[in-house]
Amino acid sequence: MTLTSPGVGVPPLREARPRTYAMTPPVHFTVSYAINPWMDTSVPVDTERALTQWHTLRAAYESLGHTVHLVDPAPGLPDMVYAANGGLSVGDTVVAARFAFPERAAEGDLYAEWFARNGFGSVHRTAAVQEGEGDFLVVGDRILAGTGFRTQRAAHDEVAALTGRAVVTLELVDPRFYHLDTALGVLDDRTVAYYPAAFSERSRRQLDEMFPDAIIATAADAAVLGLNLVSDGRNVVMTDRAPHLEASLRDAGFRPVTVDLSELLKGGGGVKCCTLELRRHDTMSDTLIP
Ligand code: ARG
């Protein structure tokens, strides 16, 4: 028993911290190319429906007391709705993405310009490919970094140097879970949930050592991108299709808030993919919120 568990079967008290997010509405969302196994260009996409679902997600954050800043969507960039990939914001530093596929390359510049224009810190670019919070997840003082499909390992060192944080490399091995945020969700400064089979043997061992109290997701949880979640430390915004994970989170003292993002799942993304956390709290400009 640890100090945080007051008694057998009594989950620790979970505390929410107000957050600031950037989101891009799926005005131009469609599946016109396939760069991950979830994308099938022969399956029709209902852009209106995607927008409605996205608005529900935005409303969920706002009703929890969080701030949402909007990034303008651009025509011809259907994946721009997955704002998590736009960069990584840690304290005064923002690292804007360098995308792996040419289809998304232009998003890197648009997010970089947006960060610079809106004062979210000094904006840096990496030489190596990295897809922002898709593959870099902040857990307390540490940054967990995925590699294997998109983000290059060399970018992990660049991000460590730029942010001054310890970066832990994790190897992804299942193409369905091509970004770290599809296989691991951050719940608070020391708690994560993950799907072990998405990681190499070595990374699995490392995760087990770092997070002995982690919540372990099932194959079914992972297969609906249940781990692609956003937590404020207590409220966990997640898909409504992962009842097992939802129950595990509840048992651990978290409060799941479920949303239907089924249309956006057709692009291979969920709740977290649509959400970029901004961690510079001193320069918020409220003119950005329409
Ligand atoms: N279609 C997008 C891609 O393959 C989905 C990105 C999902 N984003 C994420 N953070 N996992 O690049």
From TrEMBL:
<protein>
    <recommendedName>
        <fullName>ornithine aminotransferase</fullName>
    </recommendedName>
</protein>
